[in-house]
Design goal:
The protein is about 25% helix and about 25% strand. It is of the alpha+beta class. The strands form six sheets. The chain has a five-stranded antiparallel sheet with strand order 6-7-12-10-11. A hairpin with a 2-residue loop joins β8 and β9. The longest helix is centred in the last third of the chain and has 19 residues. The protein starts with a strand and ends with a strand.
Length: about 350
């Protein structure tokens, strides 16, 4: 277990933003993770858990406490059952399942970050969410002072949310277990319209696993959503805002505002989101409110490839980023009456 003091945190995040931590511990085993958490809790020291750093916005002043970087490794595959250590690089793990001929997470290729973060956010993209394949999450329960195993139904998964996100100070994820599918080298049924269109298939069809993965990676790269140190469009947290889910009543009001602003024939994106609810597109809202690709003149700007990504052009501060985020939130609210919610976790700052 490595320990550093006054340690920079910006290099541990995909934004490359944020000040230092008073203390930074890098843990490479579950036991080291638990020891570090117990030590912080015993001394009343604020604790920040860091995985791949792809969903973090850390304030310029940094973190006054212990930052715990989880760097555990472990990829155990038995039949269609997969267990990943929290520190495993997510996209590498997905690639290995595709190579093994197992379906269920292939459309989550290219998502940056660690395996342990996936259940917290209920990571999803291109028609798949981890909640559909996670069977169990092994975590250290700080309140009970012991390791627990939570079945899928105990994790309270919903859109970009979970029990772990709802109670962030309680659980530290150690391992994640998945139940995958052997479909003779084929993918899970393709659900996402854009993916189906690019693949030239109908929704519900299956395609070779490698083809599904390669297609998703190309789609993500075209939107700046695959990490590339040379491309500032990828110096981001991916999607900065979640897609709003509206009640039927609120959606009707929203449609009226859309037509008033964009014309009688204008229709906003609409996707079923459960009884009495409809999901719309945050990227569409941002664009139609006037924040187009590449928007901004400062060191923090909207990606030139995707309106949903806010980016560090190389010399930004966290405050630069937040100023842009607040401008976008205010503009969308004024235009459409919808308040966007940030997807990344903020540390020491808020919108």
């Amino acid at each position: 277990m490595q320990e550093l003091h006054d340690a920079p945190l910006a290099p541990l995040t995909t934004f490359r933003l944020g000040g230092p931590a008073t203390r930074l511990i890098t843990a490479t085993t579950d036991a080291e993770v638990i020891d570090a958490v117990r030590d912080a809790d015993a001394h009343g020291t604020p604790l920040l858990v860091i995985g791949g750093g792809s969903n973090l916005v850390i304030g310029d002043k940094g973190f006054d406490g212990t930052a715990l970087r989880i760097a555990t490794r472990g990829f155990e595959l038995g039949g269609t059952t997969l267990e990943l250590a929290a520190g495993e690089v997510w996209t590498d793990a997905v690639a290995r399942t595709v190579e093994a001929g197992l379906a269920g997470i292939e459309c989550l290729s290219g998502i940056p970050g660690s395996a342990g973060a996936t259940p917290i956010q209920n990571v999803g993209a291109y028609g798949q969410e981890v909640s559909s394949t996670i069977t169990e999450v092994v975590a250290y329960d700080r309140r009970a002072g012991r390791t627990v195993t939570l079945a899928n139904e105990e994790c309270a998964f919903s859109y970009r949310h979970s029990r772990f996100k709802a109670d962030p100070e309680r659980y530290v994820v150690l391992r994640v277990r998945f139940g995958l599918e052997d479909a003779n080298g084929l993918s899970a049924p393709v659900k996402y319209a854009e993916t189906a269109r690019v693949l030239g298939v109908e929704a519900g069809d299956r395609v070779p696993l490698a083809t599904a993965r390669e297609t998703v990676l190309k789609l993500r790269a075209g939107k700046g959503m695959v990490l590339d140190p040379e491309d500032h469009d990828t110096w981001s947290a991916g999607s900065f805002f979640t897609n709003p889910i509206l009640t039927d009543t609120d959606f009707a009001v929203f449609r009226t505002r859309v037509r008033k602003r964009l014309g009688d024939g204008a229709e906003p994106p609409a996707y079923p989101a459960g009884q009495g609810h409809t999901k719309t597109s945050a990227a569409w809202l941002i664009d139609k409110a006037g924040f187009t690709k590449g928007y901004g003149t400062g060191p923090a700007r909207i990606s030139t490839k995707h309106t949903l990504a806010l980016t560090n052009r190389g010399a930004a501060t966290t405050e630069d980023l937040l100023a842009l985020a607040r401008e976008v939130v205010a503009g969308v609210r004024e235009a459409f009456g919808i308040t966007l919610v940030n997807e990344p976790v903020t540390v020491g700052v808020s919108l």
